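Dear Dr. K.,

Following up on our conversation at the group meeting, I've run the structure prediction for non-specific serine/threonine protein kinase from Zygosaccharomyces rouxii. I'm pasting the input sequence below exactly as I used it, so you can double-check it against your construct before we proceed with anything downstream. Let me know if the numbering doesn't match what you have in your notebook.
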Amino acid sequence: MKLLKHPNIIDLKYYFYEKDSHGEVYLNLILDYMPQSLYQRLRHFVHIPSAMPRLEIKCYMYQLFKSLNYLHNFALVCHRDIKPQNLLVDPNTCALKICDFGSAKQLKPTEPNVSYICSRYYRAPELIFGATHYSNQIDVWSSGCVMAELLLGQPMFPGESGIDQLVEIIKILGTPSRQEICAMNPNYMEHKFPQIKPIPLSRVFKKEDEQTVQFLADTLKYDPMERFNALQCLCSSYFDELRHAQGQLKQIVDSLQLLQFEYDTELAHLTQDQLEAVRLKLQPTQIR
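The predicted structure tokens came back this morning:
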């Protein structure tokens, strides 16, 4: 955590060890102060009851993908436990920071990883299929699940067990194709699954516009290679409202520095041609 420096990642200020009367040693972490978790923020609206403001959701999700883009492409770290409880927010400013890196790991192509990772409701399907050579894309799936929960007021895939989690996913997204199963874990290609037709996400998210529904669909693809990565998420037209903000929304965007990127960290992995294309999308003309 001391190596991670990004405005949307909780900053480790200091740490120390403490021993209790029984000789047990405890690690104490001194972190940035954030008033509450995104889970607590959502519960507030559920109890009112009222929907969380869509612009607030959009601000939170943009910051989440900014932090994931940094983690995945510069720090080369996969968080592996993205969920509302691990996202800290300040409702007064709409600031968001990722916390809890207890499951985080630098993924290496030649090194197997445990598949029993990530909290169940947010667990990517390749993990449920037992993949041990997965990618940072599991964080994007989790983020899509978080966004869906903010919109619905409840988890999109509320599985009661690992297998039931897959059932909940299939009930909405339909049975994965043979190619999609191969992309998640080729060991299951010969397994026979009941053929379930997908439910259009527009029926699940009846109150949301087409742009929002399409963005969710891009984050919730079975095939990790077809799933948007964090930078593609940032470039999505779903966030154009933030890029062309006016009035009070522009003040929020400016105060959070949403449209500012560190080229030597957040965009360092891009070629010059890619960088120019991304800048055209991420940053309006007036700040370039």
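Two things stood out to me. Strands lie at 12-19, 25-31, 36-37, 87-90, 95-98. The first strand starts at residue 12 and ends at 19.

Best regards,
J.T.
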